[in-house]
């Protein structure tokens, strides 16, 4: 089992090119299933979740290659409609393959993704929506058997919550369905728009992505396409917090600043100087970070739930007390127990976390409980005196492309052992 060893206390400084977005590349890889010839995906990060997605595509019959940050998927010979249980368990977001497999094969068998480290993550909205499009779904002994014997047919869908994954699954299923589908109360996250952009360049007719009403006019078939994945806004927040907590500075290249407005305002409130220049963001830390007004996680364009742990780690080292309210996931604060080992003072109750800034962190052994919680530990460890050992880093490797190498480029003393 790999561990991260961090010798904290080094001021970070330098420039980084940001990775492509994990939450974009996974649905885009699923979307290649709907195309009838090869697709080339650029700016594809090297992540274990990407490897799992490629294993799923290969299992279905696609030919996949990855060279540097370019993934090629040739889906011509896809002939299977089942995702093995072992691959479903590796990655909860493999649920997004359901809409694409149903769209192409008119049937799909997957195991139910179940709960995860952030608490219960139901898929009722995914299933109800696919049923509205004409799928017949049966759950049996942890497996989902889905069929659309008469094909999928366009319809109106009102989501009771603007779920990112459900919106993506509907778009995937509706892209080649018969007729028009309208999604009301759709998710507006940039990763949903990236998926729609990929599909539109492949010949789909999707409009309104980025707004809460998305219209999909089903087309008969989609062709292969070259597509570049958008930058990862959560990785951007992570590297900025790493620089800020060490009193350092960073210039990030290949960023989409408009995707980060709610996050940048928290960095500014904490006293950092943030400058935006086209696709670059530079951040210079305050000599002393300060508390911020209450932060509430909410759907895009509000403050993203995935950036919560990262900013909570940073604010644990600020002057004064900050409050976070987590409105998206029920059980997102597990990692705070591990942050406390490094000296953080955080109290949580239900949705609320009260973060009392401390002057010093000190090294400790700690364990990742989930992807972004793991990133929070890395950020705190960079500011802790002494050697911190972080275990269960497989969580971190799901979402960060060479986090240790990138932080070393900025001057951190960090290695994977
Ligand atoms: C995606 C992101 C994840 C991010 C989240 C919120 C990917 C791979 N993951 O996850 O990193 O934290 O968006 O921005 O893109 N819900 C239901 N029923 C459903 C679906 C969701 O009740 O059928 C609830 C969930 O329990 C949760 C909320 O809706 O409380 C948000 O979930 P959703 O937007 O679907 O997140 P994901 O797509 O799972």
Features:
14 helices; 32% helix; 4-stranded mixed beta sheet; 417 residues
Task: Describe, in plain words, how this protein is organized in 3D.
The protein has 417 residues and is an alpha/beta fold. The protein contains 14 helices and 25 strands. The chain has helices at residues 22-31, 48-60, 85-90, 97-105, 124-132, 164-175, 190-201, 233-245, 261-269, 308-315, 335-341, 371-383, 394-397, 403-409, and strands spanning 4-7, 13-17, 39-42, 63-67, 70-74, 107-111, 136-140, 143-147, 156-158, 180-184, 205-207, 213-217, 226-228, 249-253, 273-277, 280-284, 295-296, 321-325, 345-349, 352-356, 361-362, 365-367, 384-385, 387-391, 413-416. The strands form 7 sheets. Strands 22-24-1-25 form a 4-stranded mixed beta sheet. A 4-stranded mixed beta sheet has the order 2-14-16-15, covered by helices on one side. The chain has a 4-stranded mixed beta sheet with strand order 4-5-3-13, covered by helices on one side. It starts with a strand and ends with a strand. The mean pLDDT is 96. It binds uridine-diphosphate-N-acetylglucosamine. Uridine-diphosphate-N-acetylglucosamine binds at residues 23, 26, 93, 121-126, 161, 163-166, 191, 304-306, 328-329. Uridine-diphosphate-N-acetylglucosamine (UD1) binds next to helix 1, helix 5 and helix 6.
């Amino acid at each position: 089992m790999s561990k991260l060893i961090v010798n904290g206390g080094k001021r970070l400084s330098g420039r980084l090119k940001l990775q492509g977005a994990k939450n974009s590349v996974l649905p885009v890889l699923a979307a290649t299933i709907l195309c009838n010839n090869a697709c080339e995906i650029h700016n594809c990060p090297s992540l274990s979740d990407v490897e799992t997605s490629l294993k799923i595509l290969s299992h279905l019959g696609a030919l996949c290659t990855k060279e540097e940050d370019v993934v090629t998927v040739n889906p011509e010979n896809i002939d299977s409609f089942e995702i093995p249980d072992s691959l479903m368990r590796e990655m909860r977001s493999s649920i997004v393959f359901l809409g694409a497999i149903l769209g192409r094969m008119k049937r799909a068998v997957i195991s139910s993704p179940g709960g995860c480290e952030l608490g219960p993550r139901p898929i009722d909205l995914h299933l109800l929506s696919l049923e509205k499009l004409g799928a017949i779904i049966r759950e049996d002994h942890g497996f989902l058997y889905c069929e659309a014997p008469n094909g999928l047919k366009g319809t109106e869908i009102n989501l009771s919550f603007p779920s990112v994954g459900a919106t993506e699954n509907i778009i995937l299923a509706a892209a080649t369905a018969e007729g028009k589908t309208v999604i009301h109360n759709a998710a507006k996250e940039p990763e949903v728009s990236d998926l729609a952009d990929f599909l539109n360049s492949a010949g789909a007719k999707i409009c309104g992505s980025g707004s809460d009403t998305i219209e999909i006019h089903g087309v008969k078939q989609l062709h292969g396409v070259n597509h570049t994945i958008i930058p990862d806004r959560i990785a951007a927040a992570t590297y900025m917090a790493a620089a800020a907590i060490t009193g350092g500075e960073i210039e990030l290249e290949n960023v989409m600043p408009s995707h980060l407005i709610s996050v940048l305002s928290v960095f500014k409130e904490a006293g950092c100087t943030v400058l935006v220049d086209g696709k670059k963001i530079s951040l210079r830390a305050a000599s002393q970070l300060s508390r911020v007004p209450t932060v509430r996680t909410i759907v895009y364009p509000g403050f993203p739930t995935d950036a919560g742990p990262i900013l909570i780690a940073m604010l644990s080292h600020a002057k004064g007390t900050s409050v976070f309210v987590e409105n998206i996931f029920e059980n997102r604060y597990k990692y705070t127990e591990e942050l406390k080992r490094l000296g953080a003072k955080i109290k949580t109750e239900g949705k609320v976390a009260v973060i009392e800034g401390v002057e010093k962190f000190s090294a400790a052994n700690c364990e990742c409980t989930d992807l972004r919680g793991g990133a929070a530990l890395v950020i705190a460890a960079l500011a802790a005196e002494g050697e911190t050992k972080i275990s269960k880093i497989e969580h971190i490797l799901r979402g960060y492309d060479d986090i240790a190498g990138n932080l070393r480029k900025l001057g951190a003393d960090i290695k994977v052992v």
